[in-house]
Write a structure and sequence with these properties.
This protein is mainly alpha-helical. The chain is 58% helix and 5% strand. The protein has 21 helices and six strands. The strands form two sheets. Strands 4-3-5-6 form a four-stranded mixed sheet, sandwiched between helices. The chain has a two-stranded antiparallel sheet with strand order 1-2. Helix 12 runs antiparallel to helix 13 and helix 13 packs antiparallel against helix 14. It is elongated and about 80 Å long. It starts with a helix and ends in a 16-residue tail after the last helix.
Length: 422
C-alpha cells in the first residue's frame, strides 16, 4: 500500500499533465472550424471498426460550437494549471460527449486521454508546475510583504501519487495485452509477417516507408518479432529500476518508428512517449528543473526602493516571473553596503530615481533600460521585446518611465514621512 499512498514529489505528475493537455489540444483544435459538420445535429458520422455504433450528435450548431470551444479552453487551462481540477473535470466530461458523438478518425488516443483525465481529475497535479501554484505563492508574498518567492516552490510539493501509479499501470497493461490481441486468431500470420505486412500496406495507414518495408517478407517478420518482444520488455522494464532507462529508450524508438512507418494519428505516439515521465524518479525531475536555476554568484541584482509599495509590488511580480532565478532583488535601504561593494559609483540619489540592474561584472543599467534588459532574462516577457526595441523607444521609454517613477508615491497611500507602506 505504501507504493500507492506514500507522499512523494509531484513533479512527474505535473509534467505529464502539461504534455497530455497540449497533445489533446493538438488533436482537437484543428476540428474547431468543422464543428457544424462533425458534431452538430445532423452531422455526417463515420462508423468504423471498433466504433461501428456511433451516437449521433444532437445539439444544434451554436450549442455544439460553444461546448467545443469550452473543451479547448478547458484543455489549455489544464495544461497550464489554472483551476486545474475544475478544468480537468470539464475537459473529461466534454470529451466523453464528443468522442462517441463522431469518431472522425477513431483511435485509442481518445480513450487513453479520457482515462488519464479521469485519474488526473482526482489527483493533486495542479500543485506543481502550474498557474495555480504561482498564484498561491504570489498571494503568500503579498500577505507576508515578501518580494521573492521561495526557491523550488513550483516543484517541491508532496502528495499522494496513487493516481499517477494508476495511470502508469494503465499504460503498462496496454503493452502487455496489445501483443496478446495481435496473436489472437491466426497468430502464425502475425509471426510470419503476413499480418503486419498487410496492416502496414493498407491504404488507411500506408506511408511510403511502410509500403516498401511491408513488401519485404523478412523485414515484416522482423518487425513482428521486435514489436512483440519489445512491448513485453517495455512492460517489465518500466518497473525494474536497472532496466527502466533501456525500456524508455526502446519505447521512444518504437513509437517514433510507428510514426514513420504507419499513418495513424501522431498524438497516440506522443501520449505514449509522454507517459514515460510517470516512471522517472520524482527527484530526477526536481534536479532537471533546478538545473536551469542560475547560481547565486551569477545573478543580476535588481536594486529597488524598499520603502515604496508600488516598487515592492513591481519587484514581486518580476521575481515571480523569474523561474530561472537569474534576478536577486536588493533593497537599497537595507543593503547599502552590499551595493557599494559591487557598484561603488552608484549614488543613493540615482537609486531613488529609478531601479537599477547590476550585473556580476559591474555593468549597470537603470530605469527603462533596466526593464528592457530584464525582458531578455524573463521568458514570460519575451513577447514584449519587439515593442521595447521599436525605433524611438530609446527616447520615449525613458520619458514614460521617469514620469511613472516620479509619481510612484502617489500611486499608493503614503505615511506623513513620505514612506509608502502596506
Amino acid at each position: 500500500m505504501t507504493w500507492l499512498f506514500t507522499p512523494r514529489p509531484l513533479a512527474g505528475l505535473g509534467v505529464f499533465r502539461i504534455c497530455l493537455g497540449f497533445v489533446a489540444l493538438l488533436r482537437w483544435s484543428p476540428r474547431l472550424p468543422h464543428v457544424d459538420e462533425l458534431y452538430a445535429a445532423g452531422a455526417f458520422t463515420v462508423p468504423w471498426g471498433w466504433f461501428a455504433k456511433v451516437d449521433a450528435p444532437y445539439f444544434p450548431f451554436p450549442i455544439a460550437a460553444a461546448l467545443f470551444a469550452t473543451l479547448l479552453v478547458a484543455l489549455f487551462s489544464m495544461a497550464v494549471g489554472y483551476r486545474t481540477r475544475v478544468s480537468t473535470i470539464v475537459a473529461l466530461l466534454l470529451l466523453m460527449y464528443f468522442v462517441p458523438s463522431n469518431t472522425v478518425f477513431p483511435c485509442a488516443v481518445d480513450r487513453l486521454t479520457i482515462l488519464s483525465l479521469l485519474f488526473l481529475s482526482m489527483s493533486p497535479a495542479g500543485r506543481v508546475l502550474s498557474v495555480d501554484r504561482w498564484l498561491e505563492e504570489f498571494a503568500r508574498c503579498r500577505a507576508e510583504d515578501d518580494v521573492a518567492p521561495r526557491p523550488g516552490y513550483q516543484t517541491d510539493a508532496m502528495g499522494c501519487v496513487w493516481t499517477q501509479q494508476m495511470i502508469g499501470v494503465s499504460f503498462v497493461l496496454l503493452y502487455i495485452f496489445a501483443p496478446i490481441f495481435k496473436l489472437g486468431g491466426d497468430g502464425l500470420a502475425y509471426f510470419n509477417g503476413e499480418a503486419i505486412g498487410y496492416a502496414v500496406r493498407r491504404w488507411q495507414f500506408a506511408t511510403q516507408a511502410s509500403l516498401f518495408l511491408g513488401g519485404i517478407p523478412i523485414v515484416a517478420m522482423s518487425m513482428a518479432f521486435v514489436g512483440i518482444i519489445g512491448e513485453w520488455f517495455i512492460a517489465v522494464g518500466l518497473y525494474v529500476r536497472k532496466l527502466r532507462p533501456f525500456a524508455i529508450a526502446l519505447g521512444i524508438g518504437l513509437h517514433l518508428t510507428i510514426l514513420y512507418t504507419v499513418l495513424i494519428p501522431m498524438e497516440l505516439s506522443l501520449i505514449m512517449i509522454a507517459s514515460y515521465v510517470l516512471y522517472i524518479e520524482p527527484n530526477t525531475w526536481r534536479r532537471v528543473i533546478s538545473s536551469n536555476v542560475w547560481p547565486e554568484q551569477k545573478r543580476h541584482w535588481l536594486v529597488y526602493d524598499g520603502q515604496c509599495t508600488f516598487c515592492r509590488a513591481s519587484v514581486r511580480l518580476i521575481t515571480m516571473l523569474d523561474w530561472k532565478r537569474c534576478i536577486e532583488p536588493v533593497d537599497l535601504h537595507a543593503s547599502a553596503q552590499r551595493i557599494a561593494e559591487r557598484a561603488s559609483h552608484l549614488t543613493r540619489e540615482q537609486m531613488l530615481t529609478a531601479i537599477h540592474l547590476i550585473a556580476p561584472g559591474g555593468d549597470i543599467v537603470g530605469g527603462f533600460f533596466a526593464m528592457r534588459r530584464l525582458a531578455q532574462y524573463l521568458p514570460f516577457m519575451w513577447l514584449l521585446l519587439p515593442m521595447l526595441y521599436l525605433p524611438g523607444m530609446s527616447i520615449v521609454g525613458p520619458v514614460v518611465y521617469r514620469e511613472i517613477a516620479r509619481r510612484r508615491y502617489g500611486l499608493v497611500k503614503c505615511t506623513p514621512d513620505g514612506a509608502c507602506r502596506l
